[in-house]
Design the sequence.
């Protein structure tokens, strides 16, 4: 592992100085390499799948692990899309002309070496590796043991493409899965070789990473996301946004988990929204008012307000106006994504200002919490911390900066 | 301590929503309060000074601790200057108009609660507290035990001013000095109550903070800063910049510690630069070429290349061109501040691009490494890490951001 760290640091040094054109050439070669390795990748994937099935892994797990020619092509295409992004390195973020004639620029630079720890989805190998490379960073990837053969085949194809473009093949390294201590070492920063760790996987992985990491982490533990509906919200709009926020996909971190409704909207919005959710097959756990509005609503317990179901279940509660909604979100939320549905512009602005979440929305679905939907091209994850990166973490947030000062012999008095 | 954390978090919530005008009003009241408390502050300072002298503290320590009416006025004035800075909160950092009509803004927000651990300079109480407040953050300050009475008097005056403006007096809290465990607790984040720690003091303090902190740290351990001179550099310019970089103040982190000179400049620049330094009273520790150029130069040992003297001492070495200079800086530098002196624009651009330091300069003194000189108004410190803040940490770097999304009922397909 120490050797992997040293090689990553050396690769990061070369990547930091690589031109946009060379990084794009490398990623094009990577995409072509993945396509060319399709047979090998699928053969290794078949071995991983056979093991997963004989180990009795659930169908959802097997699905995440499964590749087919279409999915391999999608992986290659995603790499090409990352190659087409604007280069996040070398942007002039600010300039300061000083009275003494010094010209000072804040310029974006790569972060360094990024450790990515993921579970079953083998496409993360290509996605995360390509995002790190486009931002001039080296990546150390730790795949789940169940997807290791598939990830290895993808990583080998990537390394070849990178080397073809004249960049170090060590730019993207996969940690040997046999090394049981690898995750622990990565979380301590591998002796200064890793600058930041990104966990990609379920709650238990993120929890362990956040608890044990001695280096910065870009992550979110959960998305207990709220949709708060006021009486002035157009009912049809509210219905479609609530349904989409909860049910478009129930397993994503941007899915809504709690519906808050102003008591003033109880007579107009409550029953229709509950009916829409229940008719669509969603379980609703509500307070007394919600249960009175529809007999299919089950009683909510205190724990429901803080639960990320990741399933077709929603908690529902009436609140006494905006302040009560803000209090509820501050108490039970997870600083991920929260939405207000209202025609009251002042209330919307207060909600957007006061809710302390990475993403706050007015009259739009919480399911837009996604780097692609933000126009970032791709994301390595969504972060709920306040340090460095927050919200969808795209290539821009995988950079740091430095100051370039140009003078003509100035000295400080 | 847990209570201090809870109160800071509550204060941070209120500060995050405070208007620019209210923050300015609070800081004006703080400045007036410090002026009004001059007698109390000086009386407490006299007690601290008496203890420091009877404990046999060195003169430099006593000087850093000493206040007089002029210094109290300077502290108040510095707070007013911070109040006059542009509000770093609420800036729209980027906007994204999406094809579906969503308008997405990245808007700056406060970081939260900032822990500042400092030693003898009591003015840090006011400086750091005011910077945190202007950026909408609560501050938990840990003063050195030797300056505690002075810092307490200043903090009390500040709390009164803050409360007068209708902001929570807990916005700036001073940790009781009796609590020996306070620093350790702050470094673990005080149970989630502290978002980032800033150490202000000597090497041993920063070393301990960097080693033990479980929360992010904005700091630099040392500034082993280089001035690299090429043969094309104007000699008079080089002489004045080298002298200024080393000797303007030898105890600041932006002072130069190593002079690198191209071998091609040995015949033209070496002897005059050494003579200027030696004549000005600077000790020079050099390689063989430097010793041959001036008999007053002492031999440099390997350790000299990695030493931050913070004194009138400089290491000097000849290098074989730009690549060798870059290698030397990569090997021995501390990623703080490095300068190239040259008339070769291409060499300067390569140096600015390739040296991985927070601040890189062309034809200017390393002593410009300072938030005030950058136009930031004030700084809480200088950071050499790559996460979140780098270089002089002013009010802007004491902020985070969030995404505000405004829609008209959009749902995600």
Sequence:
């Amino acid at each position: 592992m120490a050797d992997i760290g040293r090689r990553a640091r050396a690769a990061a040094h070369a990547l930091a100085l690589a031109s946009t054109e060379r990084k794009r050439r490398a990623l094009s070669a990577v995409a072509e390499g993945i396509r060319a390795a399709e047979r090998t990748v699928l053969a290794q994937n078949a071995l991983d799948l056979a093991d997963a099935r004989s180990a009795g892994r659930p169908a959802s797990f097997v699905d995440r692990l499964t590749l087919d020619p279409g999915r391999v092509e999608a992986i290659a295409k995603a790499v090409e899309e990352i190659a087409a992004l604007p280069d996040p390195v070398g942007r002039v973020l600010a300039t300061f002309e000083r009275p003494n004639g010094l010209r000072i620029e804040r310029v974006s630079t790569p972060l360094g070496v990024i450790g990515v720890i993921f579970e079953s989805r083998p496409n993360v190998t290509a996605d995360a590796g390509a995002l790190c490379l486009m931002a001039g960073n080296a990546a150390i990837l730790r795949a789940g043991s169940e997807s290791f053969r598939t990830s290895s085949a993808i990583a080998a194809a990537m390394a070849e493409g990178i080397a073809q473009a004249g960049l170090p093949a060590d730019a993207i390294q996969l940690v040997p899965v046999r090394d049981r201590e690898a995750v622990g070492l990565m979380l301590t920063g591998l002796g200064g070789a890793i600058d930041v760790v990104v966990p990609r996987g379920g709650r238990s992985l993120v929890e362990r990473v956040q608890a044990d990491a001695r280096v910065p982490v870009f992550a979110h533990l959960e998305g207990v996301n709220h949709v708060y509906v006021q009486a002035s919200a157009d009912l049809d709009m509210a219905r479609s946004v609530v349904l989409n926020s909860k049910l478009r996909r129930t397993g994503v971190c941007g899915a809504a988990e709690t519906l808050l409704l102003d008591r003033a909207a109880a007579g107009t919005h409550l029953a229709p929204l509950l009916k829409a959710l229940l008719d669509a097959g969603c379980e609703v756990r509500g307070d007394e008012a919600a249960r009175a509005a529809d007999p299919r609503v089950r009683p909510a317990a205190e724990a429901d307000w803080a639960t990320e179901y990741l399933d077709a279940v929603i908690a529902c509660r009436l609140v006494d106006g905006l302040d009560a909604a803000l209090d509820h979100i501050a108490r039970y939320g997870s600083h991920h994504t929260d939405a207000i549905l209202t025609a009251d512009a002042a209330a919307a602005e207060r909600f957007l200002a006061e809710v302390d979440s990475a993403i706050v929305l007015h009259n739009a679905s919480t399911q837009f919490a996604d780097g692609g939907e933000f126009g970032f091209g791709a994301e390595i994850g969504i972060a709920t911390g306040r340090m460095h990166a927050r919200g969808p973490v795209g290539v821009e947030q995988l950079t740091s900066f430095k100051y370039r000062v140009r003078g003509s012999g100035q000295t400080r008095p």
Chain B touches chain A through 61 residues (CB under 8 Å). Chain B has two domains: 2-218+393-405, 225-368. The first strand of chain B starts at residue 92 and ends at 97.
